[in-house]
Amino acid sequence: MKKLKINGNSLLLVITIALFVVMYAAGCIVYADKGFTHLQTFLNVLINNAGLLCVACGTTCVMLTGGIDISVGSVVAMDCMLLAVGMEKWGMKSPVLMALVLLIGVVFGAVQGFCIAYLDIQPFIVSMAGLFFARGMTAVICTDQVSIVTDQLFVKLSNTKINIPFGIGAYTNRKGVLQIPYVRVSVLVALLIVILVFLMLKYTKFGRSIYAVGGNSQSATLMGLDVRKTKLKTYVLASFLASVGGICYCLNTMSGTTTQATGLEMDAISSAVIGGTLLTGGVGNVVGTLFGVMINGTISTLVKSNGKLVSSWANIVTAILLCFFIVLQAVLANIKERKKA
Amino acid sequence: MSKIKKITKMQLFLPIFSMLLVMFVNVIYDIASGNAPFSFFAISTQLTSSGNTILYGRLIDILNRGSEVAILAIGMTLVVSASAGTDISVGSVMSLSGGMCCMLLAGYGVTNVSEYANPLWVGIGAGILVAVVCGLFNGFLVAYLNIQPMVATLILWSAGRAIGLLLCNSAIVYVRVPSFQFFGSYIGFLPTPILIAAICVLIMSLILKFTALGTFVQSVGINKKAARISGFNSAKIILMCYAICGLCAGIAGITATSRIYSADTNNIGLNMEMDAILAVALGGNSLGGGKFNLAGSIIGAYTIQAITTTLYALGVSSAQAPVFKAIVVILIVVIQSEPVKEFFKKLSANKTAAKEA
Amino acid sequence: MDSNIALTMRGICMTFPGVKALDNVDFTLKKGEIRALMGENGAGKSTLIKCLTGVNKFEAGEIHVDGIEGPIVNKDTMDAQHKGISTVYQEVNLCPNLSVAENLYIGREPLTKIGTVNRRRMNQMAAQLMKDLDLDIEVTRNLEEYSLALQQMIAIARAVDMESKVLILDEPTSSLDDNEVEKLFHMMKRLKKQGVGIVFVTHFLEQVYAVCDGITVLRNGTLVGEYTVEELPRVKLVAAMMGKDFDDLASIKPEGSMDFTNAPLEIDAKGLSHAGTIKPFDLEIHKGEVVGLTGLLGSGRSELARAIYGADRAQTGTLKVNGKEEKIKSPIDAMNLGMGLLPDDRKAEGIIGDLSVRENIILAMQAKLGIFKKIPMAKQIEIADQYIEMLQIKTASRETLIKRLSGGNQQKVILARWLATNPDFLILDEPTRGIDIGTKTEIQKLVIKLAQEGKSLIFISSEIEEMLRTCNRMAVLRDGAKVGEISGEEMTQEGVMHAIAGGAAHE
Fold first, then answer.
1. Cβ contact (<8 Å) for B323 and A137?
2. CA–CA separation, C201 and C297 (whole Å)
3. Helical segments of B266-337, H only
4. For chain C, which domains are there?
5. pTM confidence score
6. B229 touching chain A per CB within 8 A
7. Is the ipTM of this complex over 0.95?
């Protein structure tokens, strides 16, 4: 019985988790005086990246089928603008707008998915067009920055603090005030999405066919799976989750501008790659993506805590990590190919 | 019927048709808004504040602003042809090379100079060199590690701008020296960028004519296996294409920086990679690699600029213009897609069958 | 339908534009029978299989399957699967990134009450299936952790579990070593006992006689015959596949016999091999000599040539070219030593479709010269015209895209490409495939002329007369290895057949 001693794919996930732990530990040691060790710092990473996490889950699914979607950042921006303008200028209620935003996500994904799955057009080109379209539509809706202040429900959702129970991580600060760590609604939504997507990928027929299509789409067809339908549904899911992420993002920024979320799609893709999702498809997990997002967020926090380093350093470190993981994936793939021959 | 078919099958049909369409729209607009019907084409002279005579007109504007995209399109055409992939880092590399150049010309940490800290050729040389190094990096990942082009270039897409910003110490560095601004302003009555673009296109055309570069690149792109049997080293060829693409990004970056005589790393080349890719596609070149036509890409580049300029004239803001670019992209690729081509083939087959019946 | 018959196909006809691929072909498969389906290139094997599995829509004929009333028409592979006909291909069509159990059950997973996949049940069912087939496989491990041979058996297990009455194995042993082939045969015999009818498509002679009960031979789209293994000894099988009636083989003496023992060696290969394609071989080729490589399709002829040329880099052994030891790492190394290779698959490895005839002709020359030394246009035109004339290439102009030419003319262009490099050693793999009779003779004459000019050649062809006419000596290949050489008196149709078939002459 020939078995590979090291399963290359789980190796990637182990490296990712180890990397996160090391990074965070380093931060705790170096920046202990700046409050890095407080639980709230960790939770802030989650709060600031809740939107990214939702988006990245959708991106992970798309990448699992071997495709890619670079329109998601612009969709988030479009959603934020729509929410902001809808509430402030058109006087609509937030539940209606949120439903509208989700619907737009579904339609957007369906159009992209159709072009990619049924017209056989390269995913990069189609989603690039989607990126242009959504980015432009953001400006068409409104070119100024719009802040959300009116809608009571939305404002309340944004401001709600959900305290960590049982006093975990609570401490008294220098001024003698008791600080209780908290998360926001968007974090709960994001974590829920992660769990749901995880279960979907592992336990539903749709989830398993995503892996099959990514592993070998020819085989999948021969085994009777409807590859095109699976791909279409994946892109719909990705844009839907981008819209969910958009709502979370908006709860955080409470405004709509034309320059929001630029580059978010690349953050989502790099989170997925760092989290062990293979770019060629068929391998990956939202758990890894969760850690990828956390690593992303930790780097930003580390850079900010330093105070002397400019935020550009965060981009560079992320890019270096991305490079490392891409090269690692390629090297592992080469080793596999040579073992086969 | 067959004459129309012949014309549509010409390699340059798509770019020329698109360009003519854009011009047509402009003419209609002019007539509709009461201007002289062909004012789109009007070229006149103007006096600048410094008393020089320069050319002026919408056409000149298009040629001027489209210079960077045209230069990028040269390198992108080769990359698409040889590797069936796209280099999305060109915009960021532009920014990086501009940042490197200005940093050297001003001295590290300095944000505003009216004379050079280092000679001009050092700044420009370094800027272009760093861009070529980026191209080699991309090419290595694609050619030797077999990483998908879009993914390999993703790294510099995110890092390029950040490195440029760091080089300039996170500030916008102004180089207010006439000999530097020269590259972005006017040479005589002609905007310099137009000349730079023209020179680049000319050099590449000469290279394609007098060396076997075109044959090497196209063979690898069309049939890698056959090219290998016939003695080509596809890895080296692909590496070279990405290096050339990096070089083009460097030149375009210096030009763009010179225009505003400053290294505005956040904005130089922003989204220009998309325009370059679009130019190649609009030029009739297949994004799946293979045969290419440089003239098509160049016409495509200026057509895209024309679209952008026309949109501004029609009152569409620069932030909203991408919507139309998106529609154009989708239209092109959908029409070029296999299922749609099959559909039209069936339609015409039915028509001829009906005729014969 | 007879109760011990699993499958019958009667009078199947299939036409592609301009070509009659299958003409009135019959195929019968009994229950619990392992039947080999054999034929040379273009015989129609894969076309017939595709008609059976629903990929091709055939124009005439009927298919009957045990258990279903009346003739069946399959819409696609899934439809065929539901009617009891499964196929396992050479490239294992499973998903390497999924577990064994998932591969067995994907598309038909057992579900829980709420509609999600019941993983525990799936794993249990999979483990039971593996046990039933005597396979020691952990079903929760990923497919890619197992060797190709085991992956194939898992693919077969999936097919069998879906109630297959007919199992088609399409070239299953091409990538397996001897041990793995044994395991596969063990499984096939087990399935035989369960009453499954197996169609074994292969070109490995020895394997056919090791495990099959019957052989069906196709040639040029027609049925040559359906035989039992006992009534078709090896030589008769080879004769049937190559279209020669064994009893009236005329012996065609080669034109002139030449003695090369004192001539200098152009190629001296010792122990060259490439894993998975050709076992270690020795081959000497003298200057001015034409050596033919003969054997059935898939016996390793092309692979041997490619190992010398560096197209599939030789992993063992030494190579001396013109007396000097050389290392050939890739085709350009070979070309710089004066070699050339006309590959047998011109579509995949020959033509650069979107380039013109002229560009295709000067391609290898240009590769040798490098990027900077472009062949001047005037010279390109001159060379192109020269070869268009010499080989009578039918093209509207030298600028016509090569993909618009007919297959035979494309072949001529590729041949011109190599002739233009003026090689000292030229490998021609099926150079006359798809070419009209007149030009075939031209090419054979050209080969002899090149040899007289002192060049060395390897000539590979499925047509024995052609090789007998041009070659001085022939190397015989079987099942991926060089098994011998024949020359002089032995070079007759009979002699070649015997050499290819191997075994006792009058079995």
1. yes
2. 13
3. 272-282, 294-313, 322-336
4. 5-97+142-232 (3.40.50.300), 261-338+423-507 (3.40.50.300), 345-422 (no CATH)
5. 0.83
6. no
7. no
